[in-house]
Design goal:
Layout (H helix, E strand, L loop, with lengths): L1 E7 L6 H15 L2 E7 L5 H8 L4 E7 L5 H13 L7 E4 L11 H8 L4 E5 L6 E3 L3 H17 L13 E4 H10 L12 H11 L4 E5 L1 E3 L11 H21 L3 H8 L1
Parallel strand pairs: 1-2, 1-4, 2-3, 5-8, 6-9
Antiparallel strand pairs: 4-7, 5-7
């Protein structure tokens, strides 16, 4: 079973395009979609229900805006409540910038790997319509995180667009005492990657193109605040590795 988790906040300009691209993919895969409306004020949830009519779509609403991390956590919790260990979660952007043309390759890789990252910075990937300083900051942050956490030849750590094997999410959730996601904002993607790899999750990348020229509205990401959050996540990651039980013990507990 394939599950989509889509966090969305004030995405009224992008909902129609999101579902135009998502519908044929979801229908072919017979996928279930959890769209988390994170306290939108522009009718995002109702627009999603209309645009997704006929799909296996469930819109989960936060009464107030709680942040990207909280939205992803809500979506993943909804999946974990019903999914089998071999199922796959596809997290993608609510603004429609995730290139679903790359999903077939990502799902193929997910047969072997626990986490598959769609990477704009990997060879063959690109980020279009984004200010140069943002591209530089994204590359630099990914480089620092990968070196500090010894992630090897990973190029992009911050993207929402990924595939997760449900068993890897469950294993990490057990290890972290049901506290898999603590970051409320954009650092959630780094947090999740570090926690999953600390539990032995295997990771690979598929190059992708993220084209911001097609999206409406403005980015919700605040660069300085997010970079500070990355630093906090790295500190907590190092500290948690000293406190947590061995991976072998966790694996036995989840069998």
């Amino acid at each position: 079973m394939i599950y989509f988790v889509i966090p969305a906040y004030d995405e009224e300009p992008n909902i129609a395009r999101l579902f135009d691209g998502l519908r044929p993919v979801a229908e072919e895969l017979r996928a279930r979609i959890f769209l988390v409306d994170d306290g939108s004020t522009d009718g995002t949830g109702d627009l999603a229900r209309a645009a997704g009519a006929g799909l296996d779509l469930r819109v989960v609403e936060h009464g107030v805006n709680r942040g990207l991390g909280a939205a992803i956590d809500t979506g993943l919790r909804a999946v974990l409540a019903e999914a089998a260990d071999d199922d796959i979660v596809v997290a993608c952007e609510g603004d429609g910038t995730s290139d679903l043309g790359d999903l077939a390759e990502m799902l193929k890789c997910a047969e072997e790997y626990d986490v598959v990252l769609a990477s704009v910075h990997a060879p063959g990937g690109q980020l279009i319509g984004v200010d140069g300083w943002r591209v530089f900051a994204s590359k630099a942050a990914s480089w620092v995180v990968c070196r500090a956490a010894r992630l090897g030849d990973i190029h992009t750590v911050s993207a929402v667009y990924r595939c997760y094997r449900v068993s890897a999410l469950r294993r990490a959730d057990v290890r972290y005492g049901g506290d898999l996601i603590r970051e409320p904002g954009f650092a959630v993607n780094v947090e999740l990657l570090l926690k999953l790899t600390s539990c032995g999750a295997s990771v690979c990348e598929v190059p992708t193109t993220n084209d911001w020229t097609q999206r409406g509205g403005v980015s919700k990401l605040r660069t300085r605040e997010t970079l500070r959050a990355y630093a906090r996540v790295l500190r907590e990651h190092r500290s948690s590795l000293k406190r947590q039980p061995p991976i072998s013990a966790i694996s036995a507990e989840t069998r």
